[in-house]
Amino acid sequence: MLAQPIWLECLPRVPEAIWNGRYPQINDFEHLLHESGTRVVKLLLYISRAEQKRRFEERLKERAKQWKFDPADLRKRAPWYVIPAHRKWLRELLVSQILVQELEQLPLRWPKPDFDPAKMRVPV
């Protein structure tokens, strides 16, 4: 899982030999996960432009928060699920609902034991 995707604007900081192979590797890994029955869910926690501007300005003003600022954050990004994240309770509710919806779509079943339970005897 990637906490933050590698955006094209950030690529000059990473040598091309490294980032050029990452996207196919990520796609291959996600395909492998999918083929093995793992559900891959991608979420983007959305913050409005006004709130994002306020947070960026705060980061630039407060020395203790300047390390969080990245000029690449000012560029446009592509979402998967868009989650409004202004209010934590709403964000958590929406993320939970999406994850429950995705999990409910999984063909879950109890694993079969590799022994015959009827033949097993538990000693006293």
Average pLDDT across residues?
Answer: 80
Poorly predicted runs of 5 or more residues = 1-7
Main pleated sheet:
2 strands, parallel
Which structural class should the secondary elements be placed in? mainly alpha
* DSSP summary: helix tally: 3
Helix amount, in percent? 40-55%
- SSE ordering: HEHEH
Number of domains: 2
Q: Roughly how many Å is the radius of gyration?
A: 22 Å
In the sheet with the most strands, the strands line up as 1-2
List keywords for this structure.
124 residues; mainly alpha; 2 domains; two-stranded parallel ribbon; 3 helices; 2 strands
Strand and helix layout:
Layout: H1 16-35, E1 43-46, H2 49-61, E2 81-84, H3 88-104
Parallel strand pairs: 1-2
Quick overview:
The protein has 124 residues and is mostly helical. It folds into two domains: 1-40, no CATH class; 41-96, no CATH class.
